[in-house]
Task: inverse folding
């Protein structure tokens, strides 16, 4: 079951109402006002044609498949009236609507993102080239491969993250003891090897490679490079943050994050995954995910910001945030999982992209991964079931206040 969303104009208002009844269908109602007035779009959750008729008496079911189609013509002429569609158990209709939405809306979003990435990558490459000239240890890893840029994470059509992978982590041990939630530290394996490290001046007295110190140095270098760049009129550093963020054309935020790639190892805090009582993913995919490893990011974390005392805050600041971005993407490669994710992101960008929105694409990805565990059979991720999977995710979304991260035990409020 999936909705068809019409073109939106300024003044769109999204309202969500919950029904306490058991069997859920997705209902989209668009009320068209008088000519020239703003269109208001509401997303409702209702049950069946009877419920639809209760809230909209002018509508009559068109068939037993659960589609409420065109309603009354209104009282102000043919330009007015209520229009609604409710997609129920009609698999053919659902499949058509999903395909239509994907080809129209999702494809448009992808095209916009692709153009934005191409423009952003050119600017960031220029800046990182200057950074490397000043400090050869920061080597740009942003490269184009068959028309796609590797090392860019799309958070939204206006927010991107470029990952700058650093070299020579070898003299450090990865320590993940759970003391810093979602983070780990890199500690010298032998104090006598301090001078052998490429990053010797960023090692603390306790022997930890400080993520904060590396980020501070990189922040300074990027700021200097932006000032020298030919793009300085359209590219500015975002103030009041230790993260390296650029504002480009006043439309795009690009974060450049220093990182270490950890291949072939798996975090202790995620050792419980995959759970033995859940058939998904199968052992071969799970082994592939674990061998893929993870990243360590130098970036601001909630843990560091929320520490009340200076010493604890210093420890958190030296830690590296663990990212399982590659592992998550590997899990979504099979069936129509990635297509479902694209639809979820498009819906989020259309309706829930407002300042301080708590709904991020990462939250949607986490919900999708839990949906994969709930519906572990591969046939349940065939294209004909995409609508059901999307509805299941949004139902959970509305009913649940707390969300657990997929691999670790961290919890966030939605």
Result:
């Amino acid at each position: 079951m999936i909705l068809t969303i019409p073109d939106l104009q300024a003044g769109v208002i999204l309202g969500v109402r919950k029904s306490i009844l058991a069997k859920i269908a997705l209902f989209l109602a668009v009320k068209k006002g008088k000519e020239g007035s703003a269109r208001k779009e509401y997303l409702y959750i209702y049950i069946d044609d009877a419920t639809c008729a209760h809230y909209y008496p002018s509508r009559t079911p068109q068939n037993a498949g659960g589609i409420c189609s065109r309603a009354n013509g209104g009282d102000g002429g043919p330009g007015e009236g209520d229009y609604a569609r409710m997609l129920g158990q009609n698999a053919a209709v659902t499949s058509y609507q999903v395909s239509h939405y994907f080809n129209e809306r999702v494809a448009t979003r992808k095209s916009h993102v692709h153009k934005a990435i191409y423009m952003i990558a050119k600017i960031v490459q220029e800046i990182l080239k200057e950074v490397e000239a000043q400090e050869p240890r920061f080597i740009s890893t942003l490269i184009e491969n068959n028309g796609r840029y590797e090392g860019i994470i799309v958070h939204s059509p206006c927010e991107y993250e470029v990952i700058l992978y650093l070299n020579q982590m070898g003299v450090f041990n990865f320590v993940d003891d759970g003391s810093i939630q979602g983070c780990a530290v890199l500690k010298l394996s032998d104090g006598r090897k301090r001078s052998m490290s490429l990053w010797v001046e960023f090692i603390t007295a306790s022997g930890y490679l400080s993520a904060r110190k590396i980020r501070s140095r990189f922040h300074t270098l990027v700021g200097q490079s932006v000032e020298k760049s030919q793009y300085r009129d359209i590219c500015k550093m975002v103030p009041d943050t230790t993260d390296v963020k650029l504002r480009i054309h006043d439309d795009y935020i690009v974060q450049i994050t220093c990182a270490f790639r950890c291949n072939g190892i798996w975090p202790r805090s995620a050792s419980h995954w995959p759970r033995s009582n859940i058939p998904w993913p199968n052992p071969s995919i799970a082994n592939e995910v674990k061998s893929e490893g993870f990243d360590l990011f130098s970036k601001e974390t909630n843990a560091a910001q929320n520490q009340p005392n200076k010493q604890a805050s210093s420890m958190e600041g030296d830690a590296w945030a663990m990212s399982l971005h590659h592992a998550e993407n590997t899990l979504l490669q099979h069936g129509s999982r990635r297509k479902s994710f694209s639809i979820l992101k498009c819906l989020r960008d259309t309706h829930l992209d407002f300042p301080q929105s708590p709904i991020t694409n990462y939250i949607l990805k986490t919900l999708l991964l839990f949906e994969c565990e709930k519906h572990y059979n591969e046939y349940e991720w065939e294209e004909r079931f995409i609508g059901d999977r999307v509805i299941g995710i949004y139902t959970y979304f509305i009913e649940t206040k707390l969300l657990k991260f997929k691999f670790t035990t961290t919890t966030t409020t939605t």
Q: What stands out?
A: The radius of gyration is 25 Å. The chain has two domains: 16-89, 106-413.
